[in-house]
Automatic annotation (TrEMBL):
Keyword Mitochondrion appears in the UniProt entry: no
Listed EC numbers: 4.1.1.37
UniProtKB keywords: Cytoplasm, Decarboxylase, Lyase, Porphyrin biosynthesis
Protein's job: Catalyzes the sequential decarboxylation of the four acetate side chains of uroporphyrinogen to form coproporphyrinogen and participates in the fifth step in the heme biosynthetic pathway. Isomer I or isomer III of uroporphyrinogen may serve as substrate, but only coproporphyrinogen III can ultimately be converted to heme. In vitro also decarboxylates pentacarboxylate porphyrinogen I.
Gene Ontology biological process terms from the UniProt entry: protoporphyrinogen IX biosynthetic process
An annotated Gene Ontology molecular function: uroporphyrinogen decarboxylase activity
Principal place of residence: cytoplasm
Transmembrane segments: none
Catalytic activity: uroporphyrinogen III + 4 H(+) = coproporphyrinogen III + 4 CO2; uroporphyrinogen I + 4 H(+) = coproporphyrinogen I + 4 CO2
Family, per entry: Belongs to the uroporphyrinogen decarboxylase family.
Location within or outside the cell: Cytoplasm, Cytosol
Name the record gives this protein: Uroporphyrinogen decarboxylase
Pathway assigned in UniProt: Porphyrin-containing compound metabolism; protoporphyrin-IX biosynthesis; coproporphyrinogen-III from 5-aminolevulinate: step 4/4
Amino acid sequence: MPEAVSTTNFDTDSFPQLKNDLYLRAARGEATERAPVWCMRQAGRYLPEFRAIRVENEFFNVCRTPVQPLRRYAGLLDAAIIFSDILVIPQAMGMEVQMVPGKGPHFPSPLRSPADMADFSVDRSLDYVYKAITNTRHALQGQCPLLGFVGAPWTLMAYMVEGGGSKTFALAKSFLLQHRESAHELLGRLADVAARFLVGQVRAGAQALQVFESWAGELGPQDFDEFSLPYLEADCLRMARTYAIEALAAETLFDVISLDWTRSGGGRSVVLQGNLDPTVLFAEPERCAASLAPPATIANLGHGMMPTHDPNHLQVFLEAVHESSQALRN
Ligand code: 1CP
């Protein structure tokens, strides 16, 4: 079986020196002079420059030739995330994935029964993601760290079974209940590919990693403990063992937890990221700035930027985080 992790040699020896390590310090739990800020889907559809590229290019081709939102918000973003999608893994395992404009991901042949798992393997290389990471890390010139990411096994499985987004996750949850053993086999295989993919991203130059378990909240506590948590831990542990990333090997497996706005992160010993309702960006700029306090340690939205967001409001949000952290210091 071809490896998901490449041994190809990219130019990973001579990366520019990092000039802004605020995000990395905050993620490690160190005190920082202000809250670092970045935004999920900061490269997405709310940006006219992104939409212009999308008109001419298929989504996964854009992933093969990444663009940068950092130019527009120069000096305001403390982290860059690689332009890709969590669904590159099912794609690499041989499933067809289309990004339908205005609709989102679509799998023409979803995985509806254990029999559909038969022809699964990693048959397509993820080298293009590694190349994109190496090139982007060079192009960033050390402005801020570059984050790699991966979809967590349960979230990936949910898309593969549902065939796209869902409101109820009835098909994916039925699969868990009706084909419990096969579900565990599938989740295990996804965890395996995801862990190797994370290792490859670090080798290629990713300076921190985010694991997106976007649909964790769809599982009750028992199902979460059975179908999500063990595979999150598996990814993390295998990653730490294979690559000896000190931070990930520490007793709390993840250094940072990213939450949406419906949960409270209070009382946790881990660093909190996000937690801000993205609809605040629809408010008038002054209101939007006022709804910021108190920001999580790492300021971010609790969900991705929306296509209808005004790029200027994001500018105000980013400036407000810089200013409010400044005010806290004075
Ligand atoms: O700036 C960035 O963040 C760009 C990179 C990025 C990331 C980190 C994209 C580009 N997607 C993601 C992660 C991602 N993709 C997640 C995890 C984060 C989250 O919970 O939001 C998820 C669940 C997806 C799946 C996905 N891909 C959706 C959601 C569908 C649903 O269930 O509602 C959508 C709409 C996409 C397509 C997509 N991915 C990224 C962009 C910019 C887009 C827009 C589509 C387009 O241009 O056609």
